[in-house]
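Exercise 7.
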Amino acid sequence: MAKNISFTIKFWRQNGPKDQGHFDTHEMHDIPDDTSFLEMLDILNEELINEGKEPFVFDHDCREGICGMCSLYISSRLVVILRSVQVKHRMPTLS
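Solution. The predicted structure, written as tokens, is:
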């Protein structure tokens, strides 16, 4: 049975290659622990849009977990979210 988790997510914002970027922080609440990371980003975007904020975006992505643009740092560790590669190590638990 899935349980819900809550955590803080920090993500990079930058309007273009010449603009200085910054990290935004968002509290995620009651996310089912069987939610994929890409699904969680969809939930994040729904919340940001409902708050009148710009959604989280990649420069480019296939939205299928194949191209590698959705690689992320989780707890200071690089995590590549690819469907075609078997993961040998568990993703760290977010808290």
